[in-house]
Write a structure and sequence with these properties.
7 strands, globular
Length: about 140
């Protein structure tokens, strides 16, 4: 009986490992629909640490994910995909990595928090992102 119990536990462990192996892959394919609800256009990032504000042309909401690795081809893992907030962890091979959370307050206002490594140096910021007009 004891041998059967241990075998059953081992089987459950393997099933649990299989479940964990499948979940991240499913998360990577998530649509991040919340980011699609942000209006396209010129957005201003106001950093909470006093860093000068920055303007970006937001072609799609996912442009807010890699602000310190803009244009880099990075692999992404969706950690949270909620109706009002998403969190994405990304790795840019040979160029660092980051983890960004975006919380949508409206179609023209979002809160962004990000941290990671860019250019061999750590970064961390919290910012308000607000649509300010059309892209130029």
């Amino acid at each position: 009986m004891r041998k059967f119990f241990l075998t059953a536990l081992a089987g459950l462990g393997a099933a649990g490992a299989l479940t964990l192996a499948v979940e991240p892959s499913a998360a990577q394919n998530a649509s991040l629909a919340m980011l699609g609800q942000l209006d396209r256009g010129q957005w201003e990032l106001r950093f909470r640490d006093g860093e000068p504000s920055q303007r970006i042309c937001l072609r799609e909401g996912s442009d807010l994910i890699q602000l310190r690795h803009r244009g880099a081809n990075c692999s992404r893992l969706v950690v949270e995909n909620g109706a009002r907030q998403v969190t994405v962890q990304y790795t840019c091979r040979g160029n660092g990595y980051g983890r960004t959370s975006v919380r949508r307050e409206s179609a023209t206002l979002a809160q962004v928090e990000s941290q990671g490594i860019a250019g061999g140096r750590p970064f961390q910021f919290s910012a308000e992102a607000r649509r300010v007009g059309a892209c130029h």
